[in-house]
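Thread: "does anyone have the structure for this chain?"

Original post by V.I.:
We have the sequence but no experimental structure in hand. Need at least a predicted one for the grant figures.
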Amino acid sequence: MKSLVLVLEFHQPEEMAQLIDLHIPREPIKLGELLHSCYNVLRLGVRTGHPRFFNQISCGLDLVAMAGEWLTATSNTNMFTYEISPVFILMEKEVTQRMVELIGWPNGGDAVFSPGGAIANMYAMNAARHYHFPRAKPLGMTTGMPTLCCFTSEDSHYSIKSASAVLGIGADNCFNIAVDDQARMIPEALEECIIKCKDEGLHPFFVCATAGTTVYGAWDPIPQIADICNRHKLWLHVDAAWGGGLLLSPEHRHKLSGIEKANSVTWNPHKLMGALLQCSACFVRQEGLLFQTNQMSADYLFQQDKPYDVSYDTGDKAMQCGRHNDIFKLWLMWRSKGMEGYRHQINRLMDLANYFTAKIKRTEGYEMVVDDPEFLNICFWYVPPSMRREMDHKEKMARLEKIAPKIKARMMERGTTMVGYQPDKQRPNFFRMILSNPAIREADLDFLIDEIVTLAKDL
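Reply from O.Q.:
Generated one for you, tokens below.
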């Protein structure tokens, strides 16, 4: 049974380096040795498809998607022109337009696949800057350009601040907006910050609302944020890298209410939808803007006198030249499930989250960080028996800070399961449980709860 297979066989880096031969030889290696190396690589790696791997948002192993990735490697083609990738270009157009429909843009939109959500967010910010200040493309952030600034919640992904740095806007000009006790951006705080920035001579241009935050799985209030953006004429981006998959569930898509008002959206099928890494896209409501923003018209690739409609040469709307084919595995997997299959898969995961939350609340020693999680992130502490007596709050927090790392270290030594932890603001280290793998069963969740109790019994 799969549950009897370890999630990982942990070794310290120095020991790991002795267990597998990584050197590049002068002479060729025989096939038998290569196969043995492949075996060792898989044996010593982390099994992220295991139903007891809860460590990251991207996990699971969809076999149809895996087959798609194998065939993608077999085709070994690039995604910049129709002439070398005709089927995959058409496939990408079909799938992205279906996703645009799910976002709710009745007049269509455009999209580009990117190497992860961080780059997708940067695509969105770059498009927003070009929309407001097209001269930044040829001239850069030169004299005469206003000092731009942007806004995102303090619990959003760090890539928004990173994009600000890379695009020359400056990390210090990306303002983190306060969140409420459910980790959702506070709209009033956003508008106050926008007005303050204007008063100080800055030029706001971009707001990021998050649909499914990385730690708490929180949902920023998109409709209220959209109203603020309209009042101040700002670009609204929704980072739905994690939460976008809920658009496939009629029962849960209301959590993304207002997403249709966004100017751009990030959506990572390699997260909730379960596509293999990597599979991420940036969607822009205004057709043609991605081309205008990124086009460089290299005549050795994008000739205008080809024997077909050159609008199908989509490579010039990307920052990259070479671009991996991320569409085939997604298309194949989606066809294998259909809309109804995805609806069932996502609803089941939401049900499992409710099951786990309820069990955590009634199991001695466990405490919730956020009482009623809104998504598939369940954050909790485990308080070992030695700490359940009355003690000073400051002392308890100081001791609790050390508990999760110790449990995680023992967990990795045993190799039976993996779940991440982190501190947050004034809160000591807590576990962040992620349920995105369709292979998870209730028995796997029960096992994790019992395993943590076992690992912490003498702490």
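V.I.: this helps a lot. The CA atoms of residues 185 and 205 lie 18 Å apart.
O.Q.: and The radius of gyration is 24 Å.
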